[in-house]
Amino acid sequence: MELRDFAEAILTSPDLETKLTVGSDEFTDRSPGSSRRLHEPARCDALKFAPPRSAPAMPKMGAFPDEKKRGLAHHILANHELQALEAMAWTLLAFPDAPTEFRLGVAEIMREEQRHTRMHAERASRLGICFGDYPVNCYIWKKMLSFESVLDYVAGLPLVFEGANLDHSLEFADAFRSAGDLRSAALMQTIHRDEIKHVRFGWNWLCQMAPAEADLWEIWTKHLHWPLRAIKARGNNFQRDARLEAGMPVDFVDRLEHLTEEEAKEKPFAPQE
Ligand SMILES: [Fe+2]
Ligand SMILES: [Fe+2]
């Protein structure tokens, strides 16, 4: 299947099943076409992006003994995965001139995002919640719309959102385990393992696309659009080994782990938020 057709099917089909199953045969990239930037992905009514602040917040992990709260957590995480899939499809359409190897790599990762979305939706339904029962937000999608180059994508999506998920995935795994939900915990462990590959992909392309001799920290942060910034690439329990396994060098991981006060603080004025 051509990458453009794959990306267009994901973004223009409102049907969830189509979004999550398209692209099972071999990918080709003979006709990437011209750049196309879609403003919003097509979604079925139940999963259309809700107005700001109308989607439920992530339940506190202390509430996870309640099955319904765990189901809601999977519902929210399924929407994160679906947005990641759509953001990657958007990138394939927006940057047809990116190296073919990069584009094929993004498509392979998209297959895993399809699988992650299904895993969360299935787990939510086991816990009594159907994917689409609650309003869903568009946080990742909206941030992605500010990407103006492939390097912006690499800096923002794999190295911030997926990077932070190295920590969040295991924080959720621990919380599910503490609530006695070993299946949900195992699901998060699987996603954690996949995320290491996805971060490695981002790191490898940052290295390849950065000018020779460039300071990679500087290139990374230069390509982040507010509110994305280094601190957003971390969760609460910093997974140092996962980042080293993803190929980040020790000094980069050290810097991320020990951000200066200046780097870690909230910006006092955030016009885009
Ligand atoms: Fe994922
Ligand atoms: Fe991922």
Commentary on this structure:
- The structure is a single chain.
- The protein is an all-alpha fold.
- Helices cover 58% and strands 0% of the residues.
- It has a single domain, classed as Ferritin, CATH 1.20.1260.
- It is built from eleven helices and no strands.
- The chain starts with a helix and ends in a 9-residue tail after the last helix.
- The C terminus is likely disordered.
- One fe (ii) ion binds next to helix 3 and helix 4.
Explain the layout of strands and helices.
Layout: H1 3-12, H2 16-21, H3 67-94, H4 100-126, H5 139-144, H6 150-178, H7 182-209, H8 216-222, H9 240-245, H10 250-257, H11 261-264
Helix pairs in contact: 1-3, 3-4, 3-6, 4-7, 6-7
The structure holds fe (ii) ion (FE2) (2 copies).
Q: What would you call the structural class?
A: mainly alpha
Number of individual domains: 1
Beta-strand content: under 5%
Query: Which ligands occur here?
Result: fe (ii) ion
- Give the overall average pLDDT: 95
| CATH homolog superfamily | Ferritin, core subunit, four-helix bundle
Number of DSSP E strands: 0
| CATH fold-level topology | Ferritin
CATH class: Mainly Alpha
CATH architecture: Up-down Bundle
Terminal-residue CA separation = 38 Å
**What is the C-alpha radius of gyration, as a whole number of Å?**
18 Å
Biggest β-sheet: count, sense, barrel?
A: none
Number of separate helices: 11
Regions with pLDDT < 50 over 5+ consecutive residues? 268-273
